[in-house]
Amino acid sequence: FVSPQVLLLACAEDLECVPGFQQKVFYIEKPFEFTEDQLVLNLKFDDCKGNNKLNFEVSNPDFTVELDGNLVALKNVSEVGKALFVHARSEHAEDMAEIFILEANEKRGALKEILKLEGNLGIPRQKRAILATPILIPENQRPPFPRLVGKVIRSEGTEGVKFRLSGKGVDQDPKGIFRINEMNGDVSVTRTLDREAIANYELEVEVVDMNGKTIDGPVRLDVLVIDQNDNRPMFKEGPYVGHVMEGSATGTTVMRMAAFDADDASTDNALLRYNILRQTPTKPSPNMFYIDPEKGDIVTVVSPALLDRETMESPKYELVIEAKDMGGMDVGLTGTATATILIDDKNDHAPEFTRKEFQATVKEGVTGVIVNLTVGDRDDPATGAWRAVYSIINGNPGQSFEIHTNPQTNEGMLSVVKPLDYEISAFHTLLIKVENEDPLIPDIAYGPSSTATVQITVEDVNEGPVFHPNPMAVTKQENIPVGSVVLTVNATDPDTLQHQTIRYSVYKDPAGWLEINPTNGTVGTTAVLDRESPFVQNNVYTALFLAIDSGNPPATGTGTLHITLEDVNDNVPSLYPTLAKVCDDAKDLRVVVLGASDKDLHPNTDPFKFELSKQSGPEKLWRINRLNNTHAQVILLQNLKKANYNIPISVTDSGKPPLTNTTELRLQVCTCKKSKMDCSATDALHISLTLILLSLLSLFCK
Q1: What is the pLDDT of residue 106?
Q2: Which residues of 493-508 are buried (b: 16+ CB within 10 A; e: fewer)?
Q3: pLDDT given at position 105
Q4: Strands 574-576 and 609-612, how do they pair?
Q5: Contact at 8 Å (CB) between 121 and 222?
Q6: Taking a C-beta distance cutoff of 8 angstroms, is the pair 454, 403 a contact?
Q7: Superfamily of domain 466-566
Q8: Which terminus of the chain has a lower count of CB atoms within 10 Å, N or C?
Q9: Its topology with respect to the membrane (predicted)?
C-alpha cells in the first residue's frame, strides 16, 4: 500500500552531494490501519560526511525511524492526521522530511498539483542549459551559517563562465539571505529563515561570461521554506464571555472559542484541537460543559435541572480552555485562555411577602411613607425577574394611598398622599399585591403569598379651625365711617367629637384699619379705608385673621380676607410741570405743554378742565388751549421783558362732585444769545406786582 512519490531536487545523475534528506516530500495513501512494526517507507539522509551521530525525531510518537532510515509503526494506529514530520540531525547537517497521508480520492489530485512541470515550483524543462530545481529549506535552522542548501547545474559545463543569482533575498530586501558560488553553482543560505515572515522566495539564476555578459538564462529558482511547528496557538479575541439561560436543554451552545496558529494552515502544525483543562467551581458537577475539539463550541452537558441558578454555588463559571496544534497530539504546542460563562436568570420564582399582614399607624393630616413592605425573591437582583412592582388592589377608594418600590431594597413603600381624617375613619385596611417587572415563565404563577394585608390606624390630632369660605371676599367703598362693619367671619372646628370653642384675633392688618370681635368674628373698621394707600394692591386690601380652638394645646386656623375698595372722588388733580422758560425774543410763543393726573379712578379723573385765573390790566399776556383730555398748552400773546412771572392755572376733574386744584406756573423770560439762555437777575415777580397795582387802582377808582 505504500506508494511514495518523489519530488526530485536534482534531475541529473552527476549532481554533487547535497546534505540532508535526498527526498524531502512523500505522499502515501492512507491505509485502514498502520500495524505494529510495519514498514511505512524508507528515508535517505546524507550529510555528505558519513552521517556521524545521526538521530531521527518523528512528530507522531507512535512512529519511529530506524538508523537505516526505515519509518515503522510502533503499534497499531488508525488515526495519524494528515501528515508526519521527520527531523534528522547529525554532527554536520540537519533537515526535515514531510510525509503527507492522503485519502484514495485525494492522492491523484495532490500529486498532480505538486508535480506540475510548468507550475509554481519552477521545475525546469530538460532541454534547458541551466538546471535549477526548487530548494526546500526548513525554517529555524541553527548555526553554523552559511549552509549549503542546493545546487544549480549547467549542462554545458562551467568552464569560463560564472553563475549569478538575483531577486528578493539576494540583491533585493531582505538582502543577503542567499548566495551562489559563482564557479560551481552551490546555493547557500546565510541565516535562519522564518516561514511566518516569508514562506517562499522567487529567485533568478543566469550564467554569464567573465565580462558579465549573459550566456544562459535567467531561469527561475524557487526556494520554499518548510514550516516547523514553532508557533503556539493564541487566543486573540478575549475576554471570552458567554451567557446561557438557566434550565437550558442539554446540548445548548454557549459560545465559541477560536484560537489562531501562525504556522502553515495546510499542515498539522496549525491543526488545532480544543480541550477543557479546568472548571471553576466544580459544583453541582465537575463537567458542566463540553467543548467541541474541532470547532471550539462550548455546550452544556448537564440536565436542565442541574442548570438552576438559584441552587448553584455561583452563577459564574470559569473554564480554562486549551488549544493544541498538531491535531492535539502530545508533541503539539499549546495555548490557553479563560472562558467565563454566566448563568442568566429567568423569572422562575414569584416574589413572596415576608408576612401575611403588616401594621401601620399614622396621625391624621400627615402625608408620607407609613410602612415598608418586605418581600423575598430568589431570582437575580440585577434583573426584572427580581425587581418588585406593588399595587393596591382593595381598600383605597379615595386614592389616599400610593405604593412605590424602593429600588435599593425592593421593599414596597406605602405612603399617605391625601391627609386622612380621624373623624371620618379611624381605621383602613388595604390589600397589596406584588409582581415582578418581568413576566413569570409559563409554568410558574403568583400564589397567595404574593398578596398581603396592611392594617392602618389613624390617630386623632387636634386640628385647627377652618374658615368658611377661605379666602373671604367683600367689597366696600373707601372712606366709609370708622366703626363700620365689614363682615362677620365663620370658622368651624374639624374635631367635632371634642366640642371645643373658638375665639378670633387679627393676625396681619398692614394698615391697622381693622378689628375683630373675638367671640362672634365681626370685623369692623378702626380707621378710614383709603384706596390710594400703598397697602392697597390693585384696589384690594388683604388682612389675615386667626381662629383658635380651646384644645390643649390649642390649634390655630388662618383665614384670609380680601376687601375690594371702590373709588371715591377724594383726590384733587395735580399739574405738571410747574416751571417753564422762554426767550425774550422768541418767535414761537408756545411756552409749555401742561399735563394733569389724578390718584382716583375713572370717572373721577379725566377729562380735565384747564383754566387761567382772571387776567387784570389793559391787555392779556397769555392764554391756555386744551390739547386733549389730560393736556393743555400755555401760549404767550406777545414777547415779554426779562423777568419771572407766576401764572395761576386751575385744573378740575370729572368727578361728581368735581374737585378743582389751582397751581401757579412759574414762567422765566430769559435773554438768549448764540443758543445760550441767560435767566439770571430777572425782575422779581414782575407780573405779580403789576397785577397787584392794577387791582388796587381798580378798587380805588370804584
Answers
A1: 52
A2: bbbeeeebebbbebee
A3: 61
A4: unpaired
A5: yes
A6: no
A7: Cadherins (2.60.40.60)
A8: C
A9: Lipid-anchor; GPI-anchor
Q: What is the pLDDT of residue 680?
A: 81
What's 56-88 look like in SS3? EEECCCCEEECCCCEEEECCCECCCCCEEEEEE
pTM of the model: 0.49
Considering Cα of 63, then 66, then 69, then 72, what sign does the dihedral take? negative
286 prior amide bond cis, ω within 30: no
Q: What are all long-range contacts of 690-693, with beta carbons under 8 Å and residues at least 24 apart?
A: 690/617, 691/615, 691/616, 691/617
Q: How far apart are CA 113 and CA 120, in angstroms?
A: 10
Cis peptide before 607 (omega within 30 of 0): yes
With residue 442 as reference, give the H or E element that holds it.
Answer: none
Superfamily of domain 234-344: Cadherins (2.60.40.60)
SS3 content of the chain, % helix, strand, coil (to 5): 5, 45, 50
Q: For the purposes of burial, counting CB atoms within 10 Å of the CB of 10, is it exposed (0-12), middle (13-18) or buried (19 or more)?
A: middle
Contacts of 592 (CB under 8 A, 6+ apart): 577, 580, 633, 634, 665, 667
CATH class of 574-675: mainly beta
Among 474, 500, 512, 473, smallest CA distance to 557 is for: 500
- Which residues of the chain are under the pLDDT cut of 50? 1-15, 107-127, 683-702
Q: Which pLDDT tens digit goes with each residue over 240-252?
A: 999 999 999 999 9
Q: What is the CATH number of domain 130-226?
A: 2.60.40.60
Peptide bond into 577 cis (omega under 30): yes
Q: What is the pLDDT of residue 397?
A: 94
Pairing of strands 70-73, 39-42: antiparallel
**Calpha distance 702→687 (Å, rounded):** 23
pLDDT at 617: 54
Q: What CATH superfamily classification does 352-451 receive?
A: Cadherins (2.60.40.60)
pLDDT for res 128: 54
Q: What is the distance between the alpha carbons of residues 647 and 658, in angstroms, rounded to a whole number?
A: 22
Q: Give pLDDT, residue 469.
A: 94
Segments making up each domain of the chain, as ranges: 22-102, 130-226, 234-344, 352-451, 466-566, 574-675
Question: For 22-102, CATH number?
Answer: 2.60.40.60
